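Entry 12.
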Amino acid sequence: MPRDRPEPPPFEPEWLERSLNRYLAWGLVFMVLLLVGFVAYRVREPGLRRSATRAQTTSYTDIGHQTFSASCSQCHGKDASGGGSAPTLNSSQFLKSTTDAQIFSLVAGGVSGTEMPAWSLDYGGTFTDEQVRQVVTYLRSLEPRAPSVPGWRQSDKAK
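Predicted 3D structure (tokens):
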């Protein structure tokens, strides 16, 4: 006949196991809330980015127009429509044939052999890179309504 041995006490008391189960349950609830939050963020984020991009473009366009009017319009004309010896920038031919990076380089570094100075601080000018981007954004905003000026390089007035 087997001898009855006394049962050893449990390794962990029952109250500790209940406490751990409670923490595990709260951890699971927290993880579910995080997952729901990440999904909600993922759904909402593209709209927030589009809205922020539109707001920044609007702001850059306004500031770029002010900067252009103060520094560039003497040569390129009001609203970049040409004047003097500088090219017409409000031309569908110019705006469709150049990228933002090319316009940035032209404004920042100037055009050697012409009266177009370098405007970027990096090249001895007075504009920060941000200001150059704002001028580029302003010029790009003219594209949808830019008139056809085939001779834009010769500073033909926009019609």
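Annotation: Residues 51 and 155 are 37 Å apart (CA to CA). The domain at 56-154 is CATH 1.10.760.10 (Cytochrome Bc1 Complex; Chain D, domain 2).
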